[in-house]
# Entry
Amino acid sequence: FMTDLSIFPQLTQLNLSNNPLDMVFGLNMLPNLQQLNLSNTLLSDSSALNGINQLTELHLSGLAIPGHELLSIAQQNPQLIALSLAGADLNGQFFPTGAWPMLEKLDISHAGIVDLYVMSGLKALNAAGNQLTNIYSLMNLNTLQSLDLSGNAMLAFGEIDNVIRNNPQLSELGLSDIQIGFFPIYQTPNGQFYQFTKLGLDRAGLSMDLSSLDAYINLKYLSVSGNQLMMLAGIE
# Structure
């Protein structure tokens, strides 16, 4: 049985992720708790999370709890800075990030999202593996440092290109399974090349060579598997 957490009233951070827990007790008796991670546990009942409303970080990925309940729990905490609902059953839903005006990091990968509204100020967005058909709500963002849209095969690269150009501080980008053809050379308004450190471009329809990647000398991670590359010209 899980220890009654109320015996630790001074807790500010609690990480119980990746444990075979199917219940927790006393979470609502932790008035100082700010960061909670219950991802990839066996929890199937959200009642233990009722009444918690002071969190700044909440990670509820990979749970068997219905998606609408997870969303409700998250909305109880309007001051969230980081939220993870990866794998949540949100199939076909519109994702209302306006509920968290201070949100900086959001992971809603593989959640079946078809549309989303994103607040300005977001620095990291992982929306990979969803069913997005457009990203109009990202057009006004200019604070993104990390963006993963991989697996949203219906997205037009023209829209994605606009988002990338509006966020010159982007360093991590995932666009696997989205047809790109040729990855552009991106420059900031003052003419400097983007400082990409991570690019995921698997199965993106890349052809011929990777000459445009010469510009990104700070790359630490590059994945371009499953394309139609004929040569590695450009990797110099």
